């Protein structure tokens, strides 16, 4: 499966962005989808994941209540709505996929990656 993330940009603190992850090449509903981010000088971290059918969802504690992950299998696209953005959310955001035969977590199990999209939150 090939993935392409989009929707990043520059926003002020408190603002919102919606990231999209468009999939092609394989049946999208056969994969879990995760969002990850990497800030300058830091390791890549897990942000959120949604199971192949959308029923299972997990978030890292720092984004709970602010970010919402979702997917539309008919459109081969996953989303992450990000509200009340903070400067510490600044990072390159990546989407990734894992075959549904495997568990949704741990986050280290994602094998298919898209290119990142930059999110910058100014204070």
Written as H for each helix and E for each strand, in order along the chain, the element string is: EEEEEEEEEEE
Sheet/helix structural class: mainly beta
Q: Whole-Å distance between the termini?
A: 37 Å
How much of the sequence lies in strands comes to over 45%
Query: Regions with pLDDT < 50 over 5+ consecutive residues?
Result: none
Form type: globular
Report the biggest beta sheet as strand number plus sense, adding barrel if it closes: 7 strands, mixed
- Percent of residues in helices comes to under 10%
Question: How many beta-strand segments?
Answer: 11
Radius of gyration: 13 Å
Number of helices: 0
Rounded mean pLDDT is 96
How do you describe this structure in short?
This protein is mainly beta and 123 residues long. It has strands spanning 2-6, 9-12, 17-24, 31-38, 45-50, 57-59, 67-72, 77-82, 91-99, 112-113, 117-122.
